[in-house]
Design a protein that fits this description.
- The complex is a heterodimer.
- By secondary structure, chain A is mainly α.
- Chain A has 15 helices and no strands.
- By secondary structure, chain B is mostly helical.
- Chain B is globular and about 75 Å long.
- The N terminus of chain B is likely disordered.
- Classes of the chains: A mainly alpha, B mainly alpha.
């Protein structure tokens, strides 16, 4: 292996898409455990009514940082990691279009993560919770009360900077670096979903930067964006935040759709059903994501016309999403199906993500949302779409492509254990939260009424099992990197796509001379 | 590793991105420290932030210097050129969205929050009980008369001159671009020089206008909704004019060194795109911040 630099400099200065993809994935995995540990603290405190483990402010800090770290530190970087590894391989490009900027996109992330968690350790008693404790949505005016807000704001600025550069790079790569013959409508669906996701990132990350800048000037320089006395409005914060925030949830799920759309055809041994409709559905979801943001704020006191409009627009999203679920199912219909590990995760994704989609429909209906708003029903909903949706697709994607990356097959028995224990425990974890929410348990509270005790205990037990099982995933990955049965170039029987035509493990440089796509 | 067999230029490993990350971290972290640990509302120690800023500037010189060297060595083919073009276009789009957030805030205040505070819609009692006597007119510093009595900035006078100056600078820059494509280097240098002068003139007028607002009109960043949107929008725009002018100054030096050819001058075009973008934002500002009040 003398064709690439070695030692620490290889990783610090690299311009290689595979190295950068690997760093993104390991960073995301690390953050998954950091955010996951925080979730364990939350579930430990909620195991019983009353205060046992941490004080209320520390609890709020845990929910806040858990959300922020999982969204910005785990899910998004993992998806960018996949994009780095797979997009050049799948479109026949020698690397990303702008390799040095690619390095910068990654190397901002660890610094941003430090900036985000550093206030936890700055002054005062650690167990009082010195970090941000205002929820991951950091609503004004509550967040404006936080004394170390500037660190949080600049952490968000850095994250946005990284995401925008990453997105620009992905768009330039996909539009400019495709091998001859790889027309847009021949691109693998994973590439399509990332192209559309990158547009979303470029459109909304600057708006997030804008809203935190408004917070900065309101707190430290006396502006009145969110102050009614000066003619502003705290609700303005929610509008600007959710204009970013709603597309953001699609930023996390669209690449997951892409991964699942790669896995299912391989193991159903049929081409993806309705390829073109998949592309258009992805674009339609992305477009709709810009015009539905206020469904997160139905109870804030909007005019009735606004409530109605945002309800109808929101429910429309069900149409392109249903197209996708239909197409995945139709791809499997009468296919020669086998149930290798990636396929298990993909099928679980289709089932469980759909549950999250249905609860999303319920939440989109205004009079119903008045009941559910800020309850555990919402928590259950978005964990079904983000954990059994985005995270399951990520895990499935790792199992699908890891043999190509390492040249080794993972331990299949352990991986099946990982799948079954995760899938059962994640439902024990999140399904009861629907009932808690319907019964009226609010989210973001460290203590609760006695009536909620049983379902919370069940949920916490599921959480401990699910969290612990991910250590098995870490073990499986390390074991696979260190060795295992050698895989062929194709890896999976009759897998289609350019990534399966390069050797396993994929050499440091691939597609140096572009392949021709027929 | 650069490869002879592939035509697309793949750069060697580079330390500049990491240097940039360290610079960003120190600049923002140092600023956050100064904001958090100032005494009696004053800004705290900014040393770390300035060091970070210096590192960022050092990185920009180093990184762009490398790119210019590679470009002059003819390492970039037309495909690399396309990547750069797409990069710049989408970067400018992200800037458009950043301004959109602030224009959106202005729109929301003028059409929703201020009228609601004045009792519009179902807010009659809010107005009567909480903000008695508050009239919803724009410009306003809100029911709290935040920042005290002030006078708004008229659109005629300096802002109108600044509009003319920026539009003219767009024309001189296009003139320079035509000269570049026709291979007339001295006309290119002259056109760029005029554009930079007009940009600096614009910024000088803007600084003068801010002084006038603070000293004579009692119009400040802290003057409620109007002062907030006025200074944030014009301020961010002014900063972008500064960045654009800096880019054009570098293009001027490079033009004088004869770096550009009629075929290869993407750096010039990128700077020109940026300048026109800044120009268009100003037109939006002139209409919605200055004119329609």
């Amino acid at each position: 292996m003398s064709d690439h630099p070695t030692g620490i400099k290889r990783w610090l200065f690299t311009t290689n898409h595979k190295d950068i993809g690997t760093m993104y994935l390991w960073f995301a995995f690390t953050m998954l455990f950091v955010g996951g540990a925080m979730a364990m603290v939350i579930r430990a405190e909620l195991f019983e009514p009353g205060m046992q483990v941490v004080n209320p402010n520390f609890f709020n800090m845990m929910t806040t940082l858990h959300g922020l770290i999982m969204v910005f530190g785990a899910i998004m970087p993992a998806m960018v990691g996949f994009a780095n590894w797979q997009v050049p391989l799948m479109i026949g490009a020698p690397d990303m279009a702008l390799p040095r900027m690619n390095n910068w996109s990654f190397w901002i992330l660890p610094f941003a993560a430090i900036m985000l968690v550093a206030p936890m350790f700055m002054g005062g008693d650690f167990m009082d919770g010195q970090g941000p404790a205002f929820g991951w949505t950091f609503y004004e005016p509550l967040s404006g009360q936080y004394d170390k807000l500037a660190f949080f704001i600049f952490a968000v600025h850095l994250l946005g900077f990284s995401s925008i550069m990453g997105a620009i790079n992905i768009i330039a790569t996909i539009l400019n670096m495709r091998a001859p013959g790889m027309t847009l409508m021949k691109m693998p669906l994973f590439v399509w979903t990332w192209l559309i996701t990158a547009f979303l990132l470029i459109a909304v990350m600057p708006v997030l930067a804008g809203v935190v800048t408004m917070m900065l000037t309101d707190k430290y320089f006396g502006t009145s964006f969110f102050d009614a006395a000066g003619g502003g409005d705290p609700v303005l914060f929610q509008h600007v935040f959710w204009f970013f925030g709603h597309p953001e949830v699609y930023i996390m799920i669209l690449p997951a759709f892409g991964i699942v759309s790669q896995i299912i055809p391989t193991f159903a041994r049929k081409p993806l059903f309705g390829y073109a409709s998949m592309v258009y559905a992805t674009a339609a979801i992305a477009f709709l994501s810009f015009i539905v943001w206020a469904h997160h704020m139905f109870t804030v006191g909007m005019p009735a016309a606004g409530e109605l409009y945002f309800m109808y627009a929101t429910v429309m999203i069900a149409v392109p999403t249903a197209v996708k679920v239909f197409n995945w199912t139709a791809t499997m219909w009468k296919g020669s199906m086998t149930f290798e590990v990636p396929m298990l995760w993909a099928i679980a994704f289709v089932f469980l993500f759909t549950i999250g989609g249905f609860t999303g429909l319920m939440l989109g209906v205004v009079p119903v949302d008045f009941q559910y708003h800020d309850t555990y029903f919402v928590v259950a909903h978005f964990h079904y779409v983000l954990v059994t949706g985005a995270l399951f697709a990520i895990i499935g994607g790792v199992y699908y492509w890891m043999p190509k990356w390492t040249g080794n097959m993972f331990d299949i028995t352990l991986a099946k254990w990982h799948f079954w224990v995760s899938t059962i425990s994640v439902n024990i974890l999140f399904f009861p939260q629907h009932f808690l929410g319907l019964a009226g348990m609010p989210r973001r509270i460290p203590d609760y009424a006695l009536q909620f005790a049983e379902f919370n205990q069940i949920s916490s037990i599921g959480a401990f099992i699910f969290g612990g099982t991910q250590l098995l995933f870490l073990y499986i990955i390390i074991k696979c990197i260190k060795g295992g049965d050698k895989v062929s170039d194709e890896v999976w029987e009759d897998a289609k796509g350019l990534e399966w035509e390069v050797p396993s493990p994929a050499p440091y440089h691939t597609h140096v001379t572009p392949p021709t796509v027929k | 590793m650069s490869h002879a067999e592939g035509s697309y230029y793949l750069p060697e490993p580079s330390h500049w991105p990491l240097v940039g990350s360290i610079g960003l971290f120190l600049a923002t972290g140092g600023f956050a420290y100064a904001l958090t640990y100032g005494v009696d509302g004053a800004l705290g120690n900014m040393t770390v932030s300035y060091i970070g800023l210096a590192i960022i500037i050092f990185m920009l010189f180093g990184w762009f210097g490398t790119v210019i060297k590679e470009s002059m060595a003819g390492k970039y083919d037309s495909q690399v050129d396309s990547s750069f073009r797409m990069g710049m276009i989408w970067f400018i789009l992200s800037e458009v969205m950043f301004f959109a957030a602030f224009f959106g805030a202005l729109y929301y205040m003028r059409n929703f929050s201020v009228p609601w505070l004045g009792g519009e819609g179902n807010n009659a009692m809010t107005n009567a009980i909480l903000h008695e006597g508050f009239q919803a007119v724009w410009p306003t510093n809100g029911p709290g008369n935040v920042g005290g009595d002030y006078e708004p900035m008229p659109a005629t006078g300096l802002p109108l001159w600044n509009t003319i100056i920026l539009l003219t600078s767009g024309a001189t820059l296009t003139w320079a671009h035509h000269a570049l494509k026709a291979g007339k280097n001295s006309q290119l240098v002259l056109g760029l020089f005029l554009t930079v002068v007009l940009g600096i003139l614009f910024l000088s007028f803007q600084i003068y206008e801010y002084g006038h607002a603070y000293n004579d009109l009692n119009l400040k960043l802290t003057t409620g909704a109007y002062g907030t949107t006025f200074f944030m929008l014009t301020g961010f725009h002014g900063f972008h004019v500064f960045v654009g002018a800096t880019m054009l100054v570098i293009m001027l030096f490079r033009a004088m060194k004869g770096h550009f050819t009629a075929e290869h001058h993407f750096a010039f075009e990128a700077s020109a795109w940026y300048w026109h973008f800044v120009d268009v934002v100003w037109l939006g500002l002139f209409i919605f911040v200055y004119w329609l009040i």
